[in-house]
Amino acid sequence: MGMNAFERQKKIYIEGASGVVSTIPVDPFLLEQKALKAMSPQAAAYIGGGAGHGSTMTNNRAAFEKWRIIPRMLRDVSVRDTSIELFGRKLPYPFLLAPIGVLEMVHPEADLGVAKAAAALDIPYIFSNQASVPMETCAAQMGTQPHWFQLYWSKSDELVKSFVQRAETCGCEAIVVTLDTTLLGWRTQDLELAYLPFLHGLGIAQYTSDPVFRQLLDEPEATPAPKPKITFDAIRTLLSAIQHYPGGFLQNMKSGYPRKAVKKFVDIYTRPSLTWENLHYLRKITKLPILLKGILHPDDAMKALDYGLDGIVISNHGGRQVDGAIATLEALPAIADKIQGRIPLLLDSGVRGGADAFKALALGATAVCLGRPYVYGLTLGGAAGVEEVLANYLADFDLTMALAGCRSIKEIGTDSLKQY
User: Fold this and answer.
1) pLDDT tens-digit profile of 165-183?
2) Could you tell me the CA-to-CA distances from 79 to 82, 85, 225, 246, 398 in Å, in that order?
3) Is residue 153 domain-shared with residue 198, that is, in the same domain?
4) Full-model pTM
């Protein structure tokens, strides 16, 4: 049995009667506004911004509004089952936490705070490739609770192999290959501030904690790094990189490794030449389920099936990569029609409430991935803030399912919706 919406509501109202009102907004849009105001301008741009005009972000939300739920009456919904099965594991809810990088920009607990909240509520957490905390540390926090690993395919296959082996060793149960970021999108808000967090040593903890990556730092540089102008900001950027590199400050300053790490990361972190054929290599080096994240076209979904992949994450990277791209919910029905339930279909980008999750499941998704909302909870309250946001989402979904007349996930189908 999943989150009981009535108990969650009762807790909020009883506390309110005693004058205790949470500082974490329940309304997802108020939550976003409050969190973005609490962030630095750089963090707000990086977390809240999108590509180009932001039209893909708008499309993601508009797609959900085109579908309406048709509630059914006089069905006994006193007991609901919100659980699903995914890769042999029974999960209490059809929710996972999407990978989001550089969380140290919004709260010192960063990825570790998210791991604590995910473990408390038994929600799978997909560790970000661009994390602020190494995967091993987050995995230790989660214990036996489900966790996966997101993989950005580096120019170094040895580094790819090392990441995958580390993920296996620390108990990750699946590898999620992000396909839509072989190049950074034209992210106007970041560009306006001329700020990329990785150049400051943020969000590269998976790399600086990796033995293969650290070996790469001792190789001669193929191209000398351009000499920056000596300015206050340049010095501050270097000090940030030194501070975020493992080890003591003086040792890092003398070794030069922090600067080398940033340059090496920028040089190799993605591979624009990646093709379907590269996936054979990944299959050879791991027996874990492999999901492809970023699929939007039904033909690509069928190719994933042809290449023996185990699942798909229908995603447009939260609107951060291609301006004017199709919304994920718009892409879902055609992909679900092609796949016919042969592999799991997860969906992210734009999910902002229980009704959104209900609609996605009705149109063929196996589960949904939450992204920005949990970051907003982290911003405002650390691990406790994440847990509160997630508890609200789970209760909202449970309540939506009940009021729509569905007692289990299996009863959610296309007959529950009407398109406008």
Assistant:
1) 999 999 999 999 999 999 9
2) 10, 19, 62, 50, 10
3) no
4) 0.96
